TrEMBL record, chain A:
The keyword Thylakoid does not apply. It comes from Pricia antarctica. This is Iron complex transport system ATP-binding protein. Residues 13-249 form the ABC transporter domain. Pfam families: ABC_tran. The lineage of its organism: Bacteria, Pseudomonadati, Bacteroidota, Flavobacteriia, Flavobacteriales. CDD domains: ABC_Iron-Siderophores_B12_Hemin.
Automatic annotation (TrEMBL), chain B:
This is Iron complex transport system permease protein. GO terms for molecular function: transmembrane transporter activity. GO terms for cellular component: plasma membrane. Its main location: membrane. It comes from Pricia antarctica.
Length: 263, 343
């Protein structure tokens, strides 16, 4: 972690003392992290600890309880809706409402923040759409309807849509659920290459801790206490993963960076 | 975005079909008028038979225009509701708008015997009926909008609309239980639906309201397209959810409310036309869909009205029955053929 590298990268997302949840119940608090452009970050933790809630709070889908979320040095709530739409794009777990859309139509919707009142696509819009399609290798699927696609294909389309929105930050909620091992790895490698190539910040929630350790630049571990954050290798050194799960079923092997089932 | 040429072709075909149906509609009716005579009246020629000219200008043409407005208005409101509620089975009846109109009409026709003073003014004519049902549908709409501000979930809103419908139906049946046969018959005639009783003045009022509804829909095109992804995504694309929902609900209310007020409750057009349109125009873009459903709705309503006229006979079938007889099998056919309704 050379000082020079840090200087070059612009901070895009800074979270300090964040508490998330609903009015009636705090789900997680004391969350601190920051991510820069071109970085891939994973949010991991056991079921029900608030990974999705955190991601939805970052994406302004639900309000935070306290603390601060800064997008490019400006508080999230101070962004007007349309400005924010140019900063953050989402890939959520909820299914899209209309599966009758063609792949191309769906990806083109990503350009909405930039189009005129009728939503007509400009030349630049078409270029961005084409770029997103080629980056996700969707050329052959682009005229298909969404209900004809497999889960993995649809996930790629949704990522392409977020990419076409051309935002500083892309947030993805569990982008690898329902996918087999091969497609999980494919999607995560793709996210990494997109982050590095386009200098976008990509944050996703995941249960694939071992893959995240291998692929991510940074990780946040939600553990109901101090929510450790850092580069995966530093987190391993700190022994952060050992405390992630209750000790009765799995244990973490720091030398291989993987979990072992306790017999 | 895909090849504009195909859309242009579909639109030319739709418009041609509209012209043909319009011609068919005005040349057929209880009085048999030769087609050549009808055509020459239209282009401004004089007929030797003055009564034919009178029938065409003062009865058939207003009726055909009413059918066009009714069909277009209901079809568009159906499309708006299916997108807003993300539900392929949504239609103008679902929000309770048509039920509100029925309640207004029922209160005027059957309630007037309970509040007999009202009757003394002889208020019971077509205009007062239109006003009463407009008030009814807008009161329900207002209720729905107040609740929409509190309930975020559109599915809940849909169910609230259905509950409004049930309450209305209950009040109407209580009223019909206590009312006399003559009044009941009058209400039942209204509920049959009709596009035939509008004067040119009433027609222009209906046209004005429907144009406002269409304008609101056009202003909502972008939001409607974003709603296809779901509300969370729409917000992340910079759509002002509250404002867009209000605008779309208002458009729906204006379209469905005014049509029901003037033509009675007409079933299935609002539900079926958007689905039929998606069969011929393969897009989900509302920029294309809105004009398409307007034309398709008009065509279907003209056809239904032509059938209801029962050419060359004096009897007129209730148009609501025709739209249901044609509409229900269409919806079933769509379900069976596609296994599920997608929108």
């Amino acid at each position: 972690m050379s000082f020079k590298k840090d200087e070059k990268l612009r901070l895009t997302l800074e979270v300090a003392d964040l508490a998330i949840g609903y009015k009636s119940a705090v789900i997680a608090k004391n969350i601190n992290f920051n991510v820069s452009e071109g970085e891939l970050m994973a949010i991991v933790g056991i079921n029900g600890i608030g990974k999705s809630t955190l991601l939805r709070t970052l994406g302004n889908v639900q309000p935070k309880l306290s603390g601060s979320i800064k997008i490019e040095q400006r508080e999230l709530e101070n962004y007007p809706a349309l400005k924010l739409a140019a900063k953050i794009s989402l890939v959520l777990t909820e299914p899209i409402a209309s599966k009758n859309m063609s792949v191309l139509e769906l990806i083109a919707l990503g350009r909405q923040p930039y189009t005129n009142w009728l939503g007509s696509l400009s030349k630049e819009d078409r270029t961005k759409i084409k770029e997103a399609i080629s980056m996700l290798q969707l050329e052959e699927l682009q005229h298909r309807k969404c209900f004809e696609l497999s889960d993995g294909q649809l996930q790629r389309v949704m990522i392409a849509r977020a990419l076409a929105q051309d935002t500083t930050i892309i947030l993805l909620d569990e982008p690898t659920t329902h996918l087999d091992l091969y497609h999980k790895v494919k999607i995560l490698k793709l996210l990494k290459s997109i982050a590095h190539r386009t200098k976008k910040t990509i944050v996703f929630t995941s249960h694939e801790i071992e893959m995240a350790i291998q692929l991510c630049d940074k990780m946040v571990l939600l553990d109901r206490k101090n929510n450790p954050f850092g580069q995966p290798c530093h987190l391993i050194e700190q022994g952060a993963f050992e405390a992630l799960f209750p000790g009765d079923a799995v244990s973490f092997d720091a030398s291989t960076g993987s979990f072992r089932i306790q017999k | 975005m895909r090849s504009r040429k195909t859309y242009r072709l579909s639109f030319s075909l739709l418009l041609a079909a509209l012209v043909v149906c319009f011609g068919l509609n005005i040349s057929l009716g209880s009085v048999s008028i030769p087609f050549s005579e009808t055509f020459s009246t239209l282009v401004g020629g004089n007929l030797e038979n003055r009564s034919w000219e009178y029938i065409i200008w003062n009865y058939r043409i207003p009726k055909a225009f009413t059918a066009i407005l009714v069909g277009s208005g209901l079809a568009l409101s159906g499309l708006l509701m299916q997108t807003l509620f993300r539900n392929p089975l949504a239609g103008p009846f679902v929000l309770g708008i048509s039920s509100g109109a029925s309640l207004g009409a029922a209160l005027l026709i059957m309630g007037s015997s309970l509040f007999s003073g009202f009757m003394a003014f002889g208020l019971l004519n077509d205009i007062s009926l239109a006003i009463a049902s407009s008030i009814g549908s807008f009161l329900v709409l207002l209720g729905v909008m107040v609740i929409a501000a509190k309930v975020k979930d559109t599915m809940a809103l849909l169910i609230i609309g259905l509950m409004f419908g049930s309450i209305t139906a209950a009040i109407v049946s209580v009223l019909s239980y206590f009312t006399d046969a003559e009044k009941l018959q009058q209400f039942i005639y209204w509920s049959f639906g009709s596009v035939g009783n509008l004067s040119w003045a009433q027609l222009s009022i209906l046209l004005g309201i429907i144009l406002i509804g269409i304008l609101c829909s056009i202003l909502s095109i972008k939001a409607l397209n974003a709603f296809l992804l779901g509300e969370d995504y729409a917000r992340s694309l910079g759509v002002d959810l509250k404002r867009s929902r209000y605008l779309i609900i208002m458009a729906t209310g204006l379209l469905a409310g005014s049509v029901t007020a003037f033509a009675g409750p007409i079933a299935f057009i609002g539900l079926a036309v958007p689905h039929l349109t998606r069969q011929i125009i393969s897009t989900t873009d509302h920029k294309i869909l809105i004009p398409a459903v307007l034309v398709y709705g008009a065509i279907l309503m003209l056809l239904c009205d032509t059938v209801a006229q029962f050419p060359n006979s004096a009897s007129v079938l209730p148009i609501n029955a025709i739209t249901s007889i044609l509409g229900a099998p269409v919806v079933i056919w769509l379900l069976v053929r596609k296994r599920r309704m997608i929108f």
